[in-house]
Amino acid sequence: MIVRPGATRTSVLVTLAATVIVVGAMAIILFGPTLRSELIDREPGVPIKLKLVGASGHPRLIRDEAGDTHYVVKLNDGSTITLTPSEFTARLYHDRATRPWWARLLNVSSAFGIAWVALGLLGQALFAGRMIVQWLVSERSKRSVVPVAFWWMSLGGASMLLTYFVWRKDVVGVLGQGTGWMIYLRNLALIYSRRPKRDDVESASDAVNDAEPHLVTVRTTKADTPRSTPTGTGARDVR
Q: Do 119 and 185 share a domain, yes or no?
């Protein structure tokens, strides 16, 4: 199968365009509401970038007409509480001091977050393991080789890491893994599109088998070759 250079360039441009569209759309869907709330914040006060146990969203620091400041915290049940600076500090200290060691290590606020971190770790393990697989295959072949398993592990690891970064709301990770995800998928499509199909292989085998009887009829064997009788001294009459 011959691939024209123009077709190759078109495929590359289509892949790049699809990557930009998919990653851009994903970033807008995931981070659009957050970015819009940051740029157009109509709620009173200033949001504080921290998470309290049992609270949804970020606490807000508000200054009243008298100039006094207090914190407004929205709880998971939808209700809100107002805390003085000393009360807010005491609650924040209690939340941080009573967190279990695994919550501090994994930077999660609930046991459900462990599943997300485990997904990210598994994706990172696949992502690192692909390089080990590629290295072992290259050592066995005594040359640099990129096996198909490399692209499958890249796709699986990127999918898991992309999901993890979406949960973390990490725009850098989403953009990086989203771009790689499309490239890995495109490489697998190119690999399997160039492999001969089973029907094509069987048709080629049947064509060779059909041609073999015709080839046999034009062959000459040693028995069919006429033998010349030696002449001259030492020649015997063969009867």
A: yes
